[in-house]
Amino acid sequence: MRSEKILKRPDFCFNRGVYKSMGFSDKDLSKPIIGIANCWSEVVPGNYNLRELAKHVKYGIYAAGGTPVEFGVTGVCDGTAQGNRGMNFCLPSRDLLAYDIEIMAEAHQLDGLVLLGSCDKNVPGLLLAAVRLNLPTIILPGGPMQGGVVFDGRKSDLTSLSEGCGMLSAGTLDEESLYDLENKVAPGCGSCSFYGTANTMCCITEALGMILPGGALIPAVYAERSRCGFATGEAIMHLVKENILPRDIITEEAIDNAIRVLNATGGSTNGVLHLLALAREIGIPSKKIMEKFDTIGKDTPLIVKINPAATYNVEDLYHDGGIPTVMKHLEGLLHTGCMTVTGKTVKENLENVRYASSDSKVIKTVEEPFSRTGGICVVRGNLAPETGITKPSAIDPKMHVFTGTARVFNSEEEAEHAILSNEIKAGNVVVIRYEGPKGGPGMREMFKAMKYLVGAGLALSTAIVTDGRFSGTNNGCFVGHISPEAAEGGPIGLVEDGDEITINIPEQSIHLHVSDEELAERKKNWKRPEPKFRKGYIGLYEKYATSASEGGVIDY
């Protein structure tokens, strides 16, 4: 054990005294010291229950012969940050969280880790920390919240409020109804009830083998979530004893499995960004991962449809068997020899998993899927020479090929103002640029802009193209992650009002109908923008962030 080296008598009596000042005994200090990194706070609903959940993890660790030590780490809420300066800090918080855990684990020479976090950037940050430290580690999310009252034909969620704002602007909803809805869309804590980035990343992490089977989607308020916490505490001690490490689990084949599950479930486009970052951390080139998204997406059937692609929420997916059942259906397409945090392979974990019931509205079979191709699509073209990312599973098939005229905005706020002022009309392609990793900085989500278009009834007649990101809950026609971004001199920075743009998902292309010669002339007059942040952590991120096509990570 690493902790033995810094707790050995007599040389390290000082260190032992430090622990004893907090009530630890000689018996406690003779056991493996297991860190519990906790993203808990009172500003993030997805993490709100983690303080209570950590107690059950501790019970499991104690029962299995370890000594738990809990510490707090960074964990932000993309929901609160939507549409304001806070979103500049969300993606960069992923990298900061990984550094945060790395510092605590190394400074105190911990023997193993349980990482608690639920939200969009929390879970990928935990994954980065796990493979960087390569200590025995398990990830445990707090679980999704339940859906709210029925609104606009489905169970409501927090995004219903943004759609409601669009409806208010369009005159189809009054203020009193909108304000009343605030009290009814989120009945309790947990990660948002739709299949956004938070729940997508939990599902991906389970597919990677870093969460106990079924642990991704147990709702936050269920007693089973507490039992999962206890089992996680027990399981980390098994990993410590057997020295099973994250890099034994998160391999290239495991990432293939995660890409497969992401596509089969129609998960968030942000999953691409985070899997790129994770692969980069273990030494797999970004180009290779993008090629995997191309090939795996084409032969992965879409077998799950939930909000925003359908009226069902993640709680419904949980009741139909969750990720274990999804992976059971996909078993013939998976690398089943991959190790997991159970100490068993994927194949062994799936042996006793049941299939979804024959009348399931949420999970279909590989033989009779919702679609023959996956939910994520990589596009390329003269507007996105490296790549762009879209999500066919959240786009009406009528909009899989769309040509429109550009309305160009240099920030999210400008675009939102135009939409709410009814300046955007059917046939427009809303181009939102200077919102990439460097240009944002922080690659903000264009969540509100898309929701406003949906609420205004323009989802089937307009599109958004951006070098920023989208939330996993967005629907409508959109392409994000345009690379290279405008701030790096990418072609998206050269688009002008009135230009025609074609999005063609079947052909995986996005084309700006402007000649190469004209673009070259425009490029002569383009100037690199001044940095928006010169100091602080975001100033550092803005200076060293990579392209979205490389995961938007800090590179130095």
From the structure above, extract its key features:
556 residues, alpha/beta, Rossmann fold, Glucose Oxidase, domain 1, 3 domains, four-stranded parallel β-sheet, 22 helices, 13% strand, globular
How far apart, in Å, are the first and last alpha carbons? 32 Å
Tally of individual domains? 3
Strand order within the widest beta sheet:
7-8-12-11-10-9-13-14
Major β-sheet profile: 8 strands, mixed
The CATH topology of the largest domain: Rossmann fold
Descriptive report:
This protein has 556 residues and is α/β, with parallel strands linked by helices. The chain folds into three domains: 1-30, no CATH class; 31-144 and 190-350, 3-Layer(aba) Sandwich (Rossmann fold), CATH 3.40.50.2300; 378-550, Glucose Oxidase, domain 1, CATH 3.50.30.80. Helix content is 38%, strand content 13%. The protein is built from 22 helices and 14 strands. The protein has helices spanning 2-6, 13-20, 26-29, 50-63, 78-81, 90-107, 122-133, 159-170, 175-181, 197-208, 223-242, 246-249, 252-265, 270-281, 286-298, 314-319, 322-329, 346-350, 412-420, 447-455, 516-524, 536-544, and strands at residues 33-38, 67-72, 112-116, 137-140, 150-151, 154-155, 377-381, 384-390, 401-409, 428-432, 463-466, 477-483, 500-504, 509-512. A hairpin with a 2-residue loop joins β5 and β6 (154-155). α10 packs across α13 and α14 (270-281) crosses α15. The longest helix has 20 residues, at 223-242. It is globular and about 75 Å long.
